[in-house]
Write a structure and sequence with these properties.
Shape: globular
Largest sheet: 6 strands, mixed
Number of strands: 12
Order of helices and strands: EEEEEEEEHEEEE
Length: 133
């Protein structure tokens, strides 16, 4: 799992989260990954802020990946400075914790951003998986 190229618009950065089939046989992904910011790149890290909320921009479809193929989901991260500081409680985070759809094991991806420490202020969105990187 890797972080792809980033683009920005209106105070939000959009980044592809790539999922590559590293096995020798085809696999199927369908739905949304679970994504949150965490304080460390391991199970020892605690969640920072709210988890990513699902968007309906990309329809949910089954994506079959042959060995070596990649699919992706689009993560949107709003700038914490878009929110009142007293409500947001801005903090720095340096890792993403990502659960592929229907999986229980997480992967950790280096990713630095300022986010809201208050979990009642949601700063991230995630799209459904789609084919390609």
């Amino acid at each position: 799992m890797t972080k792809g190229a980033s683009n920005g618009a209106a105070g939000t950065i959009y980044t592809n989260i790539d999922f590559t089939n590293t096995t020798g046989s085809a696999c199927v992904l369908e739905g949304y990954p679970g994504v949150s910011l965490v304080s460390a790149g391991s199970n020892a890290g605690r969640q920072v802020g709210d988890d990513a909320k699902r968007t309906t921009v990309t329809p949910v479809r089954q994506v079959t990946l042959a060995a070596g193929q990649t699919a992706h989901a689009i993560l949107g991260v709003a700038d914490a400075l878009n929110y009142p500081a007293a409500r947001c409680k801005p903090v720095n985070a340096h890792w993403l914790k990502v659960f592929p759809p229907n999986q229980r094991a997480a992967a950790y991806v280096s990713f630095s951003t300022k986010t809201c420490g208050n979990r009642k202020v949601s700063t991230m969105t995630i799209s459904a998986i789609k084919s390609g990187s």
